[in-house]
């Protein structure tokens, strides 16, 4: 029961994470290229994107230890290898990149450097996340929600 609730929460929250990251990346790119100021609204968007990814990875780590799809004895099978190694390692790297990007942007001199840093690190993180999501066309039995 708890496992099913967590799976649905983790799967549904992915859409919020993707939307917030995409909004942050688009905003950072536009403001970087337009040489715009770094506003409180930008900061809120970047923080919410970061927080949503951290909540997502926390749910993912809990699921990692509860999931029947994580089995080191069956790692030679594609599905088990994906959930046991590929999914979690790629997602952790993505979250680390996003976190580093946010931290470095806070210390960056000037608004242009702040937006550029967010754009680069969040975009790299998003690409890794998109590559590691168990999409229905990639993983048998995976759903859109």
In brief:
By secondary structure, the chain is mostly helical. The protein has four helices and no strands.
Structure report:
This protein has 145 residues and is mainly α. It has one domain (2-132). It is 77% helix and 0% strand. The protein has helices at residues 2-34, 40-66, 78-107, 111-132.
Layout of helices and strands:
Elements: H1 2-34, H2 40-66, H3 78-107, H4 111-132
Helix pairs in contact: 1-2, 1-4, 2-3, 3-4
**Major β-sheet annotation:** none
Task: Please state the structural category.
Answer: mainly alpha
Order of helices and strands: HHHH
Give the C-alpha Rg.
Answer: 17 Å
Q: How many helices?
A: 4
Helix content: over 70%
Number of strands: 0
Strand percentage: under 5%
Q: Please give the alpha-carbon distance between the first and last residues.
A: 17 Å
Query: Overall pLDDT, averaged?
Result: 94
Uncertain spans, ≥5 residues at pLDDT below 50? none
Shape descriptor reads elongated
Total domains, how many?
1
């Amino acid at each position: 029961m708890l496992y099913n609730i967590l799976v649905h929460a983790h799967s549904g929250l992915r859409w919020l994470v993707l939307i917030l990251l995409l909004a942050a990346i688009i905003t950072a790119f536009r403001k970087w290229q337009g040489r715009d100021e770094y506003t409180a609204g930008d900061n809120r968007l970047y923080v919410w994107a970061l927080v949503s990814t951290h909540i997502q990875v926390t749910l993912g780590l809990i699921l990692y230890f509860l999931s029947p799809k994580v089995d080191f004895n069956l790692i030679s099978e594609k599905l088990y290898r994906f959930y046991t190694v590929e999914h979690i390692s790629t997602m952790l790297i993505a979250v680390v990149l996003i976190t580093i990007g946010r931290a470095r942007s806070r210390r960056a001199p000037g608004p242009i450097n702040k937006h550029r840093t967010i754009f680069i690190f969040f975009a790299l993180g998003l690409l890794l996340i998109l590559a590691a999501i168990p999409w229905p066309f990639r993983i048998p039995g995976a759903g859109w929600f």
